[in-house]
UniProtKB/TrEMBL annotation:
GO terms for molecular function: DNA binding; DNA-binding transcription factor activity. Residues 16-83 form the HTH gntR-type domain. The keyword DNA-binding applies. InterPro entries: GntR_C, TF_FadR/GntR_C, Tscrpt_reg_HTH_GntR, WH-like_DNA-bd_sf, WH_DNA-bd_sf. This is GntR family transcriptional regulator. It comes from Planosporangium flavigriseum. Keywords: DNA-binding, Transcription, Transcription regulation.
């Protein structure tokens, strides 16, 4: 019909895709510590930030609640999930077991290339201790732990580790611990013992050293969060 514009279908807004993008972005920021435990997440502010309606933001926050990264409180809002003393204890007990096993397997199975990379990483960490660069030390420490899992050569163990790190918010908690006076110095000595045992091919000693390292981190964390002195 003359004068009538042809019918055009309006593009369908992909709410699911936007939700997934928001989930990924917020998850990265929570795990890295950019969003700290207890911080409030405003649906309205996030909708403006991502240029979307509040619906995909609301769906993303529900997904993050299921992943135990946020808590949604009626009439109060959504908050980055904090940690109770029991949470910390439970998570670090699991971490001790997983990372202890990884250190043992790395000592038994670790290739020469992995050993060389561990030693190179230790040199970097030593430098960061000397200049007291906490952020760079923590990043190097995380990389070293992942190298140990590479040396362990067990994909299932890596899967469990990745899931644990998601829940433990490793970088965020690492920053809390790292701010304690002398912590990176103590950590470096603990990690040195782990790498030495791996270099020696001593699985028992590597696992024991890793368990001590994780236990030490837990004690320092609870000291920061709850004022524990033991």
């Amino acid at each position: 019909m003359r004068g009538k514009l042809p019918h055009t279908r309006r593009p369908v807004f992909n709410t699911m895709a936007m939700k997934d993008e928001i989930v990924r972005s917020l998850q990265e920021r929570i795990i890295s510590g950019d969003l700290e435990p207890g911080e409030k997440l405003s649906e309205q502010r996030l909708a403006r930030e991502f240029g979307v309606s509040r619906q995909p933001v609301r769906e993303a926050l529900k997904a993050l609640e299921i992943a135990s990264l946020v808590t949604i409180e009626r009439r109060r809002g959504t908050f980055v999930r904090g940690f109770t003393r029991t949470d910390v204890t439970n998570l670090y007990e699991v971490r001790e077991g997983i990372e202890g096993m990884a250190a043992r397997l790395c000592a038994i199975r670790g290739s020469k290339d992995v050993i060389v990379e561990l030693e190179d990483m230790m040199q970097l960490m030593k430098h960061f201790v000397e200049v007291q660069d906490v952020e760079q030390y923590l990043a190097s420490d995380e990389a070293l732990h992942r190298l140990i899992f590479v040396g362990a050569n067990n994909d299932r163990l890596v899967e469990h580790y990745n899931l644990l790190i998601l829940h433990i918010q490793r970088q965020a908690l690492g920053r809390i611990v790292g701010r304690r006076a002398g912590r990176i110095n103590r950590s470096y000595l603990e990690v040195s013992a782990i790498v030495q045992a791996i270099r020696d091919g001593d699985g028992d000693r590597a696992e024991s050293a890793m368990r001590i390292h994780v236990q030490s981190g837990r004690k320092e964390l609870t000291g920061s969060l709850y004022g524990d002195t033991d």
